[in-house]
Amino acid sequence: MPSTSSEMICLGSSCPKLIALLFFLIFSSSLPSVTSDDTDTDREALLCFKSQISDPTRALISWSNISLNFCNWHGVSCSTQTPFRVTALNLSSEGLRGPIPPCVGNLSSITSIDLSNNAFRGSIPTELGRLSQIIYLNLSINSLDGRIPAELSTLSHLQVLGLWRNSFQGEIPPSLTQCIHLQQVSLNDNKFQGSIPAGFGLLHEIKTLNLSNNALTGNIPPLLGSSQSLVYVDLGVNQLTGGIPEFLANSSSLQVLRLMRNNLTGQIPPSLFNTSTLTTIYLQSNNLVGSIPPVTAIAAPIRILSLAQNNFTGEIPPSLGNLSSLVRLSLAVNNLVGSIPESLGNIPYLERLILTVNKLSGWVPPSIFNISSLQYLEMANNSLFARLPADIGYRLPNLQSLILSTTKLSGPIPASLVNATKLELIYLLDTGLTGVVPSFGSLPNLQDVDLAYNQLEAGDWSFLSSLANCTQLKRLYLDGNGMRGSLPRSIGNLSVQLEWLWLKENRLTGKIPPEIGNLRSLTVLYMHQNMFTGEIPTTIGYLSNLLVLSFAQNNLFGRIPDSIGNLVQLTELHLDGNSFSGDIP
């Protein structure tokens, strides 16, 4: 007993320390630890994610069971205070494959997920609907399919939804517009069908709406454009019908409007051109009618205006010349009449003027040829008259495309064109040009040259020899000019990329040069209705890509070479109107 009493007395002397220690242990056990249950859940969710996908580039090599600090794992971001929670997952462009694992839905504190530009397949896991804090969700540029799960409509904080360039199908869920804080919706380049949910017009914070390149039908929501936040709308390349909503045309914030390649009808709302914000308007390839509205806004900032391939009538409004910021104007393939307004020549920075296939008449304003910024000048298939300035190559040094076919020109092709060294396309078919074809050999980017059906001369054929320097040349049309002389052997030096060579309906004589067999990329060779003599060169058999070959209506004779049997892709062969003999190969 005495000893027991002394132990109790001894313990009693240390009681204050013992009590303090016990109190600390009890209290600390009630605090959340660094490895709380929520933290463990995040770590397990990440390891689960890794285990269910393919990672051929080993992007997730740092995601390891032996590494407790998952906040240092590649692509993972965490909160700055304990308990550490996953707040962002950025695994864009990592080569990841397989279905998106449902366990990503266990990252309950995450605000941003970017899995874009990988090779994920399958459908969107419905478990993503549990991510109540998410603001940014980007699954673009994958191979995902199926429908957008209705569960995404519960993501009340979602601001950015990117699902573009996948294979999603079905309708866009109307309930998706219950995510009232959506600012950017990109569902383009999928297979969505059905109508555009009307609720998109009620999203007050929406800035960007891109639903292009789908199979959407029906009308554009009438209230779209009512949001004062809306900046960018792309509904192009669908099957939408009806007209352009007034709210969209009257928007006070919209900068880019892309509605091309639909089945829209009706007239352009006049208010669309009374804009103080729009910079880009693409309405081409619809069924819009009526006249083009005048520009009434002062200093409208429109830079791109494309109204091609509709059914517009009437004249080109002279007020378009007031668009001092205009860079591209395309009114091609309509039913426009009258003359080209002089005012168009006053647009200081115009780069593209495309008026082809209308019913325009009269003289092309000379001021058009003074817009030094012009890159594309295309007015073919009208009833226009023009005088090409002798120094056009100096006035338009940036020209890449000159398409004036059927425009009534006169005189020779200006030799100064060779100074427009960026030229890629020259189309001057049926323009009444005369004289010797100039040498274009100093145009390294030249791809197409169409000088057909004029009264041009070959001269000493030096122009053809110079074209050997145009290594990008793919199409050469010299037909219907009445050119005389023998085809030079230098024809074999033309670009190895040359696909179409049209020499028909001239007065060419002599033998067909065997060097023509060097043009191995030729798919169409028209040489009929000339006065060629001699035999078909055996080298013609080298042209293994030929689809169409015509030597008809010449003075050729002898045997048809056996090598012509090497042209296994040939679909048309015209040899009539000659004096061939012997067996048919």
Provide the descriptors you would attach to this structure in a database record.
585 residues; mainly beta; 22-stranded mixed β-sheet; 7-stranded parallel β-sheet; 9% helix; disordered N terminus
Percent range for β-strand residues? 15-25%
The unreliable regions are 1-35
Radius of gyration over all CA atoms, rounded: 35 Å
Mean pLDDT: 93
Note the total helix count. 6
Which geometry do the CA atoms define?
globular
> Can you count the beta strands?
41
Question: Biggest sheet: strands, sense, closure?
Answer: 22 strands, mixed
How far apart, in Å, are the first and last alpha carbons?
129 Å
Question: Could you estimate the helical fraction of the residues in percent?
Answer: under 10%
* Class by SSE composition: mainly beta
